[in-house]
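Lecture notes, continued. The same structure-token format from the folding unit now serves as the input rather than the output. Read the line below as a description of shape only.
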């Protein structure tokens, strides 16, 4: 008998991964990876979603040769929104590292206070609300055609199922668009009218639909394969701990960014000037958090990742060795 499996699509900032997970043992039995390059072409730096899609379809087709894929889940990095005009992108998916400072003065006067959004004022497009404001200001005609805003995980869910949904972890990921304490849209999002452009919210594990018939035929996956709602990647790594542990506890999620989560901790002492914030977990609850670009720092300092032995780690800690100042902008 062929094994029953789950396919996980994980689009990170630096790399995309496709994993095949055995349904019974939950062991990862196959992984494909691809560097996730940014297209430096007009109208602005953006993610190469068509190249990613071709790679995803190819990987699913390969996995389907070896297992019966019963479900597909998607996780992606945060600070990315797909602006849809019907069944097409109205504008490319903006790279969050692009310089949007041309609108800073206007945007900073409009964005909500930290006490409401628990989103610090971040550079580039790390506040997704700044992305929307810059795109609307810079490309008003294209933006006027936008009828739906999809968080990045749910953009891929739409490509798999044809159905448009949203989900709490990406909506509450330093966007300036959400009030994490109250669990409602921020006043800023309401004033801009963007709250009305997000589709209905599902949970990460909710079934959104099944594979589009042409995609099922192309990949060899059964048409009944379920596609679930998906999640912001760091919040996906937090979810198993939320299920298994009693609060309070802390989790460090590493990748391009090091995200520090403190479920059950206080939201009252977050330092907006040191990239402390509240994320929103898969259950819609605010989670005190902090972050820095650890993976990017390591990449700049050390190049290709390689293993460090216990002795070297101990010497660095004992010597209080630090690389200062930050290497990532």
């Amino acid at each position: 008998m062929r094994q029953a499996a789950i396919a996980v699509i994980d689009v990170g900032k630096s790399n995309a991964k496709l994993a095949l997970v055995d349904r019974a043992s939950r062991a990862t039995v196959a992984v494909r990876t691809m560097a996730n390059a940014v297209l430096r072409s007009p109208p602005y730096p953006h993610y190469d979603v068509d190249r990613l899609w071709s790679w995803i379809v190819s990987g699913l087709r390969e996995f389907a040769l070896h297992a019966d894929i019963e479900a597909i889940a998607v996780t992606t990095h945060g600070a990315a929104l797909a602006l849809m005009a019907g069944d097409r992108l109205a504008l490319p998916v903006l790279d969050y590292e692009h310089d949007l400072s041309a609108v800073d003065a206007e945007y900073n006067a409009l964005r909500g206070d930290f006490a409401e959004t628990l989103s610090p004022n971040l550079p580039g497009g790390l506040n997704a609300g700044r992305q929307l404001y810059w795109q609307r200001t810079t490309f008003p005609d294209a933006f006027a055609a936008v009828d739906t805003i999809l968080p990045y995980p749910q953009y891929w869910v739409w490509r798999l199922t044809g159905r448009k949904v949203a989900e709490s972890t990406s909506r509450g990921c330093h966007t300036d668009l959400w009030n994490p304490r109250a669990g409602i849209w921020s006043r800023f999002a309401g004033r801009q009218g963007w709250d009305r452009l997000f589709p209905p919210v599902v949970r990460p594990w909710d079934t959104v639909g099944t594979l589009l018939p042409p995609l099922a035929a192309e990949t060899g996956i059964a048409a009944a394969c379920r596609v679930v709602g998906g999640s912001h990647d760091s919040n996906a790594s937090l979810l198993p701990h939320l299920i298994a542990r009693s609060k309070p506890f802390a989790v460090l999620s590493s990748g391009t960014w090091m995200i520090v989560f403190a479920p059950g901790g206080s939201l009252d002492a977050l330092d907006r000037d040191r990239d402390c914030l509240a994320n929103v977990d898969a259950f819609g609850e605010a989670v005190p958090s902090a972050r820095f670009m650890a993976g990017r720092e390591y990449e700049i300092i050390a190049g290709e990742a390689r293993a460090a032995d216990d002795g070297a780690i101990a010497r660095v800690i004992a010597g209080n060795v630090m690389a200062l100042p930050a290497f990532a902008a």
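Point for the exam: The mean pLDDT is 95.
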